[in-house]
Design a protein that fits this description.
By secondary structure, the protein is of the alpha/beta class. It has helices spanning 10-18, 32-36, 74-77, 80-95, 116-127, 203-239, 250-259, 263-291; strands at 26-30, 52-55, 57-63, 100-105, 131-141, 148-154, 157-163, 167-178, 183-195, 245-248. The strands form three sheets. Strands 1, 3, 4, 5, 8 and 9 form a six-stranded mixed β-sheet that branches. It has a two-stranded parallel sheet with strand order 2-10. It has a two-stranded antiparallel sheet with strand order 6-7. The protein is globular and about 65 Å long. The protein is built from eight helices and ten strands. It is 42% helix and 26% strand. The longest helix has 37 residues, at 203-239.
């Protein structure tokens, strides 16, 4: 797994952590909940409908903007080059699916802070994508004695990050939305925990290293979970009628046959079974002739 934060990111992390190395927890976040639901009163108003997906899909991938007051800018945590690297890795996993036509990596600058689904729809039109995978993160570095915790809100509920002195806890999340229906199709989380043991004089250096390692481990965990979620979503696309309405184009059918998915896989299995039955019948006839 290539590192998500390289030596080029150290000056940025130093600025973010220097004020916090001797005080309370250092917190860096970009929340998909804050981006899609700008205020509490907006959350029950946005009622998703049943998605109607035309296969193969055009998919976009983007990091959501930083959460705002009390957090550090996204570029101060993961430089643009490293964000592009992670998005490329995720795009490579999507490209292996027969229901994916194109992948676009979308710079965070096109997403407005607390822009909501209206901004997501604008991005969808601008980049001509049907589905967007929104990447978010939360990293807490505990620098004070005693246990502490942070409650981070995800789209499926609260995630509590707990830790002790010199602990680094990281959460990455990929939430995949159908733009038109505003429906969450699936999500893939990635988490990590790094335990540090620095003396006060070495604390700042070790926090930088632990922050980098935390993102690497969380990204590896996310990519592993993404494979499982993509496979489950492919099954849903082929079988579900209530949760997702699917329109299959001739292009998708050709992709599915060439990849062995869908009807192509069933035809292959049926052909293999027929061949085995034929071979068995031929063998029985030969044995009967020998006995006679």
């Amino acid at each position: 797994m290539p590192p998500l934060v390289t030596r080029h990111a150290i000056p940025f992390l130093a600025l973010a952590l220097s004020a916090c190395a001797t005080g309370g927890p250092a917190h860096r976040a970009a929340s998909v909940v804050d981006y899609l639901y700008p205020s509490e009163r907006d959350r029950p108003v946005v009622a998703p409908s049943v998605p109607r997906l035309t296969l193969p899909l055009r998919i976009g991938i983007a990091f959501v903007p930083s959460s705002g007051e009390g957090t550090y800018a996204l570029g101060a945590v993961i430089p643009e080059s490293e964000r592009q690297l992670l998005m490329k890795q995720i795009a490579d996993h999507f490209r292996q699916q027969p229901y994916v036509k194109t992948i676009e990596t979308i710079p965070t600058s096109y997403l407005t802070h607390r822009g909501g689904f209206e901004n997501l729809a604008q991005v969808g039109r601008m980049f001509d994508v049907d589905v967007v995978a929104l990447l978010s993160y939360d990293q807490m570095q505990f620098t004070s004695s005693g246990r502490s915790s942070l409650t981070y809100w995800t789209l499926i509920g609260a995630y509590v990050i707990e830790g002790e002195k010199n602990d680094t806890r990281t959460l990455l999340d990929a939430a995949v939305f159908d733009v038109a229906s505003r429906k969450l199709l699936f999500r893939a989380p990635g988490v990590s925990a790094v335990k540090g043991s620095a003396t006060p004089i070495d604390r700042e250096r070790e926090l930088r290293e632990d922050g980098s390692k935390g993102f690497q481990l969380a990204a590896a965990n996310l990519l592993g979970n993404l494979d499982a979620e993509l496979a489950a979503f492919e099954t849903k696309v082929r079988e579900s009628k209530d949760e997702v309405q699917v329109v299959r184009t001739a292009e998708y059918d050709a992709r599915a046959r060439s990849s062995g998915a869908g009807g192509g896989a069933a035809d292959a299995i049926l052909g293999a079974a027929t061949a085995l039955l034929g071979a068995g019948a031929l063998l029985r006839r030969r044995r009967t002739r020998r006995a006679a």
